[in-house]
Structure formats: structure tokens, C-alpha cells
């Protein structure tokens, strides 16, 4: 099944007051959310249909531009133009350029329906509203589309009335289908998103990631203990006890790796603050299990600072477990690393915590 992605980005945006496809959401213009969703669905051939007056404002790296000869003639004209221009394709996934919440999940559901389908079009319906600008159209629609365009029909509705259409039903409030027609609508959407994001301290008022300012927090002694478990065969346990691991003592190397990882946590976890760790220690314990042994690893990290060391402890024990696997994989590749979690923490304004596990 040959598929091309088409982003319709040549509208006048008369109700919005300016070309809305260049409005920004999460650092990207609206139209890029459509091209990105198409690429994320595995569609390699993605095109932007626009007009000469807007062409210079698009990023040439996003997708090739197809310039309409007659601008502002509506979506049916744009689809017809795309089908006439891109000929070696069975299906065309059409997306509007003003749907900033679109996701690849919606497109994937359309692609699944199109496989071995005898329909001419696959069109979502949200509640009772058809969504012809988040839909798929087969190339066999072209003669009918050309006939309608010749009769000066501009919307998709006449095409859907005459084609064989498979309608996919979604809830009326499915956010991916939200299209922005007025600037006031977008202001309302960004306001709602900012209110939702305000619950998460690592997002700013524009919904973009930030590092939290911890300068006002009290410096207190803080500790955290994280645990991870490795399931291993008896043959590996015996080899370790008899010092037969060629790379050396796996627990010693794992402990060193864990200590190094704790100190490198801010380099691995984007929103972690660089903090002055005052101590890192490990505890290891083997326990017999039904299919061999389980190695219980615990990493304890401490500091005196403005923020906790939970992530440092989790990073330390994770690195230690991975290093143990690397040291021993020549003997037992079936090892399982499981149940990595925060066992306990102390200090900070939220008080102490102990896992119930």
C-alpha cells in the first residue's frame, strides 16, 4: 500500500486574522505538528499544499511544497491538485494545518482501516461531526474530485456524498481533532493548557519544560535508598562465589559504577539539579529462589542540600544492576533485572517516606 501524506496549508485564515498555520504550540508551528504526525506514522512521502504568497514562511526541511496554481479554492481543489501531482500513490492521508494536537495514533488507526479496503475514503466522525480534513482518500476518488472541481465545488462534502466512505467514530471531545479557527479559540486552549500544566512544576506557563528554582528551599540533610533485583541462575551464583568471572568481581565493579552514576545523575536526567552528594554506599544480598538466586541491590545516597537525592539513588542502583549484567553475561544471558524502586527517603519539606513493599 503506497501512501502519501498531504498537509493542507494554503487557506486564507480570514477568521483568525493571520496565517494560523504559523501559530506556535510547544515550540513548533501548527503545520509542523501535522507533518510530524505523518512522519511518526511511518509515512515517508509527506507534502505541504500551499500557495505562492505563503511558501517562503515554511521550513524547507519539513516537507516538499506543492504550490497551488489557483490559491484559496478550498480543500477539494487542494486534494485534487495533490492527486494530479503525486501519481504513484494508492492512498492520500489528508491533514489540515490547524490541528496542533494531532497525533500519530489517529493516523495509524486510519492506515489500519485502509489496508485491503474497498472504500474510497476513510473519514473519522467525532460525535456527529465528520472530519474530512483528518482523513484518507484513495486515488480512485480523483475522477469524481475532478468533476466536482469543474463544477466549482470546493468543500469535501460533495465528494463524501458520492464516494464509498468508511466512517470511524470517536468521542465528540477527542482533542486530536481540535482545529483552530479564531485567535480567541487558541487563547482559550493555551489558557486551559497552562492551568493543567501549573499542576506540574517542571512546566512553565507556556507549557514548555523548565528546571525548578530550588534556591528558596531549606538546606537539610537528605537521604534516599533505592533497590533493584537481579534474577540469576545457580551456575552464575556458583561462578561468582568461586571467583570464576573472567572480568573480575562483579559486585565491586557494579558498586563503582553505581557511585559514578550517582554523581552523573544531572547529566542523564534533564531536570535534576547538580547537587553536592556527601555519600554513596551499597548493600548486596543473595537470596535463594525457585529458579536459582535473586541478588538484592540497595543504593543509599545522602547529601545536605536544597533538594532530595531520590533520582541519584535510583540512577545509582540502575547503573549497578546494568554493570552486574555486563560483568556476568558471558555466563548467564538470561538474567532478569526487575523491581527497581525507591525504598525510602528522609528530609525535605514533604517529610520521610518508606515504601510498603
Write the layout of secondary structure elements.
Blueprint: E1 3-8, E2 24-25, E3 28-29, H1 30-40, E4 45-50, E5 65-67, H2 75-85, E6 91-96, H3 104-114, E7 121-126, E8 129-130, E9 134-138, H4 142-150, H5 157-162, E10 165-170, H6 183-197, E11 220-232, H7 234-241, H8 250-263, H9 265-268, E12 277-289, E13 292-305, H10 310-328, E14 336-346, E15 353-354
Parallel strand pairs: 1-4, 1-6, 4-5, 7-10
Antiparallel strand pairs: 2-3, 6-9, 7-8, 7-9, 11-13, 11-14, 12-13, 14-15
Helix pairs in contact: 2-4, 8-10
Task: Provide a compact summary of the structure.
The chain contains 10 helices and 15 strands. With 357 residues, the protein is α/β, with parallel strands linked by helices. Strands 1, 4, 5, 6, 7, 8, 9 and 10 form an 8-stranded mixed β-sheet that branches. It has a 5-stranded antiparallel β-sheet with strand order 12-13-11-14-15. A two-stranded antiparallel ribbon has the order 2-3.
Task: From the structure above, extract its key features.
Spore Coat Polysaccharide Biosynthesis Protein SpsA, Chain A; Alpha-Beta Plaits; five-stranded antiparallel β-sheet; 27% strand; elongated
Amino acid at each position: 500500500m503506497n501512501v502519501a501524506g498531504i498537509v493542507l496549508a494554503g487557506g486564507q485564515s480570514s477568521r483568525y486574522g493571520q496565517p494560523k498555520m504559523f501559530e506556535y504550540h510547544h515550540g513548533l508551528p501548527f503545520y509542523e505538528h501535522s507533518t510530524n504526525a505523518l512522519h511518526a506514522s511511518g509515512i515517508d512521502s509527506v507534502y505541504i499544499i500551499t500557495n505562492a504568497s505563503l511558501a517562503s514562511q515554511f521550513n524547507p526541511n519539513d516537507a516538499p511544497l506543492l504550490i497551488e496554481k489557483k490559491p484559496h479554492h478550498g480543500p477539494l481543489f487542494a486534494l485534487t491538485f495533490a492527486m494530479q501531482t503525486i501519481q504513484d500513490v494508492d492512498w492520500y492521508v489528508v491533514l489540515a494545518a490547524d490541528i496542533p494536537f494531532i497525533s500519530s495514533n489517529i493516523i495509524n488507526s486510519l492506515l489500519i482501516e485502509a489496508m485491503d479496503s474497498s472504500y474510497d475514503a476513510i473519514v473519522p466522525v467525532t460525535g456527529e461531526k465528520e472530519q474530512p480534513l483528518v482523513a484518507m482518500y484513495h486515488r480512485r476518488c480523483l475522477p469524481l474530485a475532478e468533476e466536482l472541481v469543474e463544477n466549482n465545488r470546493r468543500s469535501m462534502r460533495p465528494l463524501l456524498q458520492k464516494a464509498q466512505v468508511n466512517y470511524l467514530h470517536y468521542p465528540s471531545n477527542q482533542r486530536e481533532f481540535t482545529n483552530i479557527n479564531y485567535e480567541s479559540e487558541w487563547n482559550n486552549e493555551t489558557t486551559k493548557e497552562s492551568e493543567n500544566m501549573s499542576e506540574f512544576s517542571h512546566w512553565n506557563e507556556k507549557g514548555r519544560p523548565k528546571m525548578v528554582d530550588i534556591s528558596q528551599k531549606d538546606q537539610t540533610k537528605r537521604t534516599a535508598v533505592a533497590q533493584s533485583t537481579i534474577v540469576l541462575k545457580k551456575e552464575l551464583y556458583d561462578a561468582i562465589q568461586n571467583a570464576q568471572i573472567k572480568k573480575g568481581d562483579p559486585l565491586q565493579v557494579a558498586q563503582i559504577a553505581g557511585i559514578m552514576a550517582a554523581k552523573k545523575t544531572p547529566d542523564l536526567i534533564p531536570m535534576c539539579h547538580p547537587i553536592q552528594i556527601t555519600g554513596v554506599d551499597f548493600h548486596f544480598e543473595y537470596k535463594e529462589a525457585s529458579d536459582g538466586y535473586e541478588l538484592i541491590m540497595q543504593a543509599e545516597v545522602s547529601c545536605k542540600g536544597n533538594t532530595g537525592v531520590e533520582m541519584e539513588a535510583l540512577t545509582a542502583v540502575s547503573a549497578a544492576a546494568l554493570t552486574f549484567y555486563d560483568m556476568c553475561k558471558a555466563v548467564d544471558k538470561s538474567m532478569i533485572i526487575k523491581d527497581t524502586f525507591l525504598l525510602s527517603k528522609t528530609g525535605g519539606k514533604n517529610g520521610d517516606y518508606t515504601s510498603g513493599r
